Amino acid sequence: MLRIMLPCYLVKEQLAAKLALLRQLAEGEIPCFLAGEKQKFAIGLEIGTNMESFLQPDFFDKGRRLLAEADLPKDLFLSFHGPQFMEETCHSSNFFCGQQGFKNLLRTIDFARLIEADLVNVHAHQSLQNHQINALNQKELMNLKRIHLSTVRNTLARMRDKVGLTPIMCVENVPYNYHGDRYVDPTIGLYDLAFVDPIDFAKIISPKQNIFACIDVCHLAQVYDSSELLDKIVPLGTGVRHVHLSDLKGAWHPFISTCQEGRIPGTGRIGKTVFFDLLCHFLWLSQQVDINLVLEINDSDFVAIRETTQALNELLDNIARIPASAMLDRICD
């Protein structure tokens, strides 16, 4: 099943705007077609927050109350995007950094269960500054990466031992050079060790443990040329269950692209053709497993959500253009 989702912070006005748009989609006010036939897609919200808010004692009560007052549609799928201190990836509060981080990972599960979210999505950053990378040889860097991948795998297994097999857990790919969605001198950026190349997900994807990959297309396009994106995603197969869709602006340089994320798919450097090919692949996957497409768009006005509305309409237009034969061809391949 293909599910169309929108991200949303726990802000009353934004929640109302995103829900209104999703209701239009669910009730057929926005026409949807697939292979020439009228279609109704499942809908969902990805709830997000920052680490400072997440750690506040009243965060659970505020979040639960706000969602209860919003009168969520009965069939709305909820996911929770766990927060992280992005500029300090070894911070003790981050999920894969020691005992306090592990407690916070369990806290994301507790909150997801409180709001009846069926999926939690997290980052597993482990970054080094430029001068730290330059001080290490390739063998030392690969050893640090191996240790981090092992830490993430073992932490997720420990989490499953504590909480059981629900909710679904996804780990998201990251850009190599984190620069806060703006240009900075590459010498002061943070460089991630793992989950930059999707091949790393082979170490942690576990259908038996209900652990999968979230692919952020925009993050991937900061690392690889647009022409490489599909080839990077396809080998993961049904290990991908959650997708963040957006485009980006800015010049591309291998691994250290500077960019502005959150653009309407097809309006930036990735382009319409690549997005259409990606969409064909995700639609094909959705015939085998549930796939969530999250339109992660930066709106100029977070209440009016004009860009998100445009992105949704263009997504539906592209889905309508996909012939049934395209999906069959992929199955035959």
TrEMBL record:
**Any Pfam family the entry gives:** AP_endonuc_2
**Domain annotation Xylose isomerase-like TIM barrel: ranges:** 99-279
Descriptive protein name = Xylose isomerase-like TIM barrel domain-containing protein
Source organism per entry reads Candidatus Falkowbacteria bacterium RIFOXYC2_FULL_48_21
